[in-house]
Amino acid sequence: MSQITDDQIEIINDFVQESRDMLDNLEPTIIELGQSCQKVDCWAVLDCTNEACPRHGKGGKGACWLDEGYVGDGAGRCVFAESEADCRQCQVFALTNGDPETMNAIFRLFHSMKGSAGFLELNNIAHVAHQAENLLDLVRQGKILLENDHVDLLCRSCDFAREALEYIEKEYRDDDMEEAAGLVAGELGEAIEAARKSAESLTAPSGSGLPDEDVASNGAEKLEQLGDDLLTKFIQEGDELLQTAEQQVLQWEKEPDNLDLVAELFRTIHSFKGNCGFAGFASMEHLAHAMESVLDRARKGEKIPVEPVCEVLLRCFDVLSAGVASLAENGSENLAETESILADLEAAVSGRTEENGTNRSDDPAPDPEELRIADILVRRGVVAMGTMATLMRTKSRPLIDALVGCEIATRDAIDKALAEEEAEQARLEKERKEAEAAEAAKKAEEQKKKSPPRPGPVKQAQARRPAPPQKRQDIRVDLEKLDKLINLIGEMVIAENMLVHNPDLEGLELENFAKASQQMSKIVRELQEMAMVIRMIPVSGLFRRMIRLVHDLSNKTGKKVELELEGEETEVDKTVIEQISDPLVHLLRNSLDHGFESPEERLAAGKPEKGMLKLSARHEEGEVWITVQDDGRGLDRDRILAKAIDKGLIEGDGAEMSDRAVFNLIFQPGFSTAEKITDISGRGVGMDVVRQNLEKIRGKIEVYSSKGEGTTIRLRIPLTLAIIDGLMVRVGQTRCILPLLAVREIFRPVLDNLTHTPDGQELVRVRENFLPILRLHRVIDIEPDSRRLEEGVLVILEHQGDRICLMVDEILGQQQTVIKGLSDYLGNVDVAAGCTILGNGDVCLILDVGSLIDLVEQGNCVELEPDQVYSKAG
Amino acid sequence: MESTAVSMDMNGIEDVDGLKGKYLTFHIADEDYGIEIRHVTEIIGIQAITDVPDMPAFIKGVINLRGNVIPVMDVRLRFRLPEIPYEERTCIVVVHIEDKTVGLVVDRVNEVVDIADADIEPPPRTKSESSQYIQGMGKVGDHVKILLDVDRLLYCEEMEKFRSGNDI
After folding, report:
1. Among 1.10.12.10, 2.40.30.10, 3.40.640.10, 1.20.120.160, what is the CATH number of A6-204?
2. Does pTM surpass 0.90?
3. Contacting A residues, span 160-219, partner chain B, CB-CB under 8 Å
4. How many CB pairs under 8 A join A and B?
């Protein structure tokens, strides 16, 4: 690419963005595919009684369908199949070579990447994607067996693509990636060759036709493969694109000479086509392609009768919109009158040729029937789209004759395709009717019950079809703008507090003002909640990236591990996702490298050979808990202690330390108990990074472990990073905020319930329990109103199951609190989680309940007050 | 260039040159001190300081500076001078360095003076702690101003210890 325009940059950026999303999807799918492959014996799976079969009772080398089946040079002796297609549908095929649907999904993703990259002249990416596609195609057709190496290779292709995308983002071209591309593509090529050879006898794969056109069969089948999410996205985006395109066409009609406009329109349609292709909606893709071709000609400066073309284009949009709408409604693309529209489009464009008086002035309008046939043949993959388009313009005899005459396709192939299409149309029609009938029956039943339709039963009734996706509108917003908005809202909360609690208003009876301010507080509160939700994204993207990691690590370490994901839909703030990504990687690495035993050790210890690694996310106690749990060997208390003593991290022998304190030592900088450093982990830099990253988002990390049974590491992250509900308390002249979520009870103690332990820890009896008392005035070192417990107020705080009573002078009330950091300069202040600005402009500390409890546990602040009276000495 | 008004805009690189050789002088106990003006963003009167627990004594706490919470250091205590009650002439000099904003409590602010590099003597070669954050001794007429290195004034071992100590 010589000169790059802004438009191109925009397209490339879009491509990069889309490809990244695609890759995030691709990797887990590839690994899923690899995992779905099993080594099975055909005779065992099928319960085969054919004892004459050479594979019977002993299996054989290579795939059965290549050996006894019908694929390639298979002997064709298998009693369960009669054709190649049978072989490919056989369950042995699916079991050995991977789930066909997953395979198709991967294939489509690579194909679509290849397409976009090719369009943008990013040849290196396209090349790699093409090779990957080739490999997959061979696997899909059963020509070769899917092996573990192939999965790795495909993953590596993804890596390459990511790298290339990064480069493209900077340079807007991928020329310099040639070497890397050559490497990956070469390996893919070698793998293909090797696999082919090992598949013994095998005919060369037919090189004709794009393989995905076999896949692009009909909407209903497609839909099952598409996730609901993807479909919803497609519908939304499709709708938006069509609307944009429509506007652009209308504009074009007004300014026929504006080539920029045409180029824009072309791009819009191209995107739509791309989406259709990606989602597998062949007829829409076909129509969009035709539109695109016309626009391409216009874009390149050919004179085209703008008005009639625009008119037809608008009609095309109507058809496509209807198609998208029908997708949203019942999940099938049901395109009406595609053929006639295509004909009209052709006519409108060729109108130009007549006007220009070229030699084909008497070219008859194409026969609609022929167009239909052409459409079918293209969709069936008998003829490539480009060839067909050329042929339709240049042919001088009936279409089928022309095809056969030019040796583009055989008559048999054409007849077969047409027959298949008819059968399928009939089947679709039947299905549609059945679905309608089912729908009607269901509706009738629902009305009988007179209960509102609930999502559950609806889904069941439509067992084969996903529930119609809801229409949703998205816009992409610059994150910076969003942050500014959220900051502003934070400021507004402070300003609102200042206003409502203004000292000037004190002592005034303001009924109307009170009402108005209440109303405002409510709105501000809602606004805040909204702002928080805007930034939330599900953790699934992050979790799914871990699939690849675990796969690679398990290969590297030779430990067999199964990763289980839970609570992927849990939503957390975007910043949180960014901050916990590295810690998660560290934790998983550690787990794989140090946590799990080798398969032999596991078996010896009476555990299943395969380790269980569980990654889960959930909301709990106003926080998000992200847990990494393994069933490995667990943390070794003695070894950690020995190491800590060795490194001088603790004094004494550490015998009195709690397990929790010992386990927390692993987060010390430079701590590592691994005897040998592997290339995965063991340099002792990981765990303190984990903790640092978490501290940045005010998160906590907890370790639970029992020797021999495994380790659980929990990351606890505050749900919102900016605003909490606070309880304001006062001690002396100082005001502090307690997080309301941690407050359990507030009461004034009576003397009878107060006591203390021999070493001076004050206790209060609350019903059946004695809770330790912490005096806030000692923590922040100020003079309280009174040092006598019965004259103060006790607040029961709970954190991770531990409870303490905090003594304060007075409860001032509850308020929304905007958390501000306590300046990096001060570092992490132990008892304060942050601070906030009060209505009068004063700064007020937000206390950290966890640290307060730690203070009690460490036995700080134990000292009896001289003038305090207790009911009895403990 | 001498007549150019001192601009407080720290963003313009050109301005930094214009600010070179200018020092804000202030008074603590019996001495005059100076800090480079390019670090100073504003000077405010003393205001309510919220105490932060578990900090070295010279960190007085935090204040609200138009919606931003900034820590405040009492330079008197930093130099281990006896504490005196704040009065109306007590000022907070807000300095900004390496993305951190900190308020410095001083007894009173004097003026902005020009001190040419030639008039600055190197700091006394003593091992005393206070000499660590002295950038040089600036001569203005008959007076000597102790020029402070703001960076070192803010980043002392004690703070580092506190920061790492709190991590556990």
Report:
1. 1.20.120.160
2. no
3. none
4. 80
